[in-house]
Specification:
Order of helices and strands: HHHHHHHHHH
Number of strands: 0
Shape: globular
Number of helices: 10
Mean pLDDT: 83
Helix content: over 70%
Largest sheet: none
Distance between the termini: 42 Å
Strand content: under 5%
Length: 203
Amino acid sequence: TWLSQAVDRVEQHEGAPMALEFLEASVRASLLALDREDEIGSTLARIRSAQIGTRRKSVFVGSMYGVRVREFTECMRLGEGFEALVAEVRALKLDPRRVHMAATEYYVHVAHARLHQCLHAEPEQREQRIAQFSEALDELRRAARVPLLLGHYRALLAQLEWMREEWDDAAKSFIEAERLGIQESAPWVLYTVYRGRAHMLNA
């Protein structure tokens, strides 16, 4: 598989140690998503000998948050660990408009996770969850500098507009998100559009 090939390449590396913390986090998140959690320890052990710590100002620091958040969002484990990571990123006071493109994955995953929380919220939690979703969506809006990210933003914005009973705006956002999803061959964007429309029809 692609995962095994990536680890094989790292094992065969003969040069200086590499800053591959982001690969380690990505491998962990991918194995969790594939329900292969029992392989995490042995797989990570194979790559750790080839890596060094990431420097604080390295571009990989921002990228790490994207793969770290996937450890929670891939399995929708949105409890204390997820909230702690969100708080950690917020404390850094990063500007979503200026982060490296590799770090924008974080904003996509958090916004989708906040939508998931809204859809599964108890009535007494709904207002708080919608506020958190709106905040995450605003961060994604500022990070969305390419069509793919705009597609995610518009698909999720439509969901927020639906929750606020802004039906016409939601319909327009879904149309734009669908256009971008098709243009960018983005199944996640299209899935969000079609699921959102289904929720609107069943409301």
